[in-house]
Amino acid sequence: MFDPAVFAARRDAYMQALGPGGVAVVRSLPERLRNGDAFHPFRQHSDVFYLTGFLEPDATLILRPGAETERVVMFVRPRDPEMEVWDGRRAGLEGAKHTYGADTAFPATELPSRMWELIANCEELHYSLGLDDQMDLMVAHAIARLRKTEKKGKRPPRCVVDPRAALHELRLHKRPEELVALRKASRITGEAHVAAMKLGRPGVFEHELEAVINYTFRKAGGSGPGYATIVGAGDNATILHYIDNRSAIADGDLVLVDAGCEYDHYTADITRTWPASGRFTAAQRKVYELVLATQQAAIALATPGATIDQLHEHCVKSLTEGMLSLGLLTGTVEDRVADQAYRKFFMHGTSHWLGLDVHDVGAYTKAGKARPLEAGMVITVEPGLYIAHDAPDVPDELRGIGVRIEDDVVITVDGNEVLTASCPKQLEELEALCSAR
Ligand code: GLY
Ligand code: MN
Ligand code: MN
Predict the structure, then answer these.
(1) Tell me, what's the pLDDT at 1?
(2) Does domain 4-170 have CATH number 3.40.350.10?
(3) Which of 62, 75, 115, 156 is most solvent-facing, going by the fewest CB within 10 Å?
(4) Alpha carbons 373 and 414: distance in angstroms, whole number
(5) CA pair distance 26, 28, nearest whole angstrom
(6) Annotated catalytic sites, by residue?
(7) Taking CA 262 as the corner, what is the angle to CA 57 and CA 30, rounded to the nearest 5 degrees?
(8) pLDDT tens, 360-383?
(9) What pairs with residue 39 in β-bridges?
(10) What ranges do the domains of the chain cover?
(11) Distance (Å, whole) CA 389 – CA 235
(12) Which residues fall within 8 angstroms of residue 148, CB to CB, at 6 or more apart?
């Protein structure tokens, strides 16, 4: 829900961080053609959304905390009754000022001719180079132009600073209203996973589960999946980013679902793995119990002061021990961790930041070292074990088993809160849900 005060508070915090010598240019990404003249649905760039709540394409925000007037400047598409009949209503320049908090608003087409003056004489230009070639060129032209006007008192910024330095630090530390959205996204996502478990008996197609999941998201008022929904049955569960979702579930398959609802632009990111026939086989049970115990211990470690690297080290050690007892690897835990043989079956990281983006922004290191977790940071915890049907030198009973268990966790002052706790993951709960069909 749009609350102008929320976005004004974020801009204030950002301008405070920029300081009087900083100027920030934040721009939406270009709309993308899907084919012919049909576009992919537009989704606002998360930085623009975070600072304005503005949802239209072709939007640029320039923040100038050191300026006396025109501190918040927006470039937007002007009102155009004819175009609005085709593409929807526009806020226009008046809307940018009255609804979205701009001190001044200009038509988007005037950005190239006006930007140079708006960034003149700042010390730091906070701008995300390398995302949008056209915009990079526009910024380069503005800087080149300012080199020519130095004698007249308008010089270029002294440096260009990546948004990681200030804006993404703010986005990394979630504000209360962001946690509200993430809780809601998590709750809806839990319901969608349960709906999939109830539907996913042998014979049902993966895309049918995708459909019920995405339906549940939209029905509950979410904007849809925050990333392409993954439904992998049997061997497909061993492909990390399997989004084809076109196979039928076979008897005895484990089904891996990785899906997250985006609500108010914030996305959850849950993975659950469950037995389509309602009972884990002995081999599946062993793998599942290993991943679950590993994940639960990793979540317990996710407290202020710990690092994502520590969580990952725990998962590597715990899963490698399991791989040895399952007969997937031989030798000692120390040796197999050292030579990274475990990567054959656990080849991804344990955690990432979560928020407006599924792989959310925020630096993972400080001064070259993993940074300690702090209250307000949100991470996923998602160990997994994947044994492809054609993996060499593995026990036959383990072939075609892929298990990942993923929850979303907000760090609190004295520990953590599992945002996705409502989504069942205990073995008995899954068996009960999957057999009650
Ligand atoms: N769903 C993407 C991920 O788990 O990172
Ligand atoms: Mn994830
Ligand atoms: Mn995921």
Answers:
(1) 75
(2) yes
(3) 156
(4) 12
(5) 7
(6) 37, 241, 258, 269, 348, 352, 359, 382, 386, 404, 406
(7) 20
(8) 999 999 999 999 999 999 999 999
(9) 33
(10) 4-170, 173-435
(11) 6
(12) none
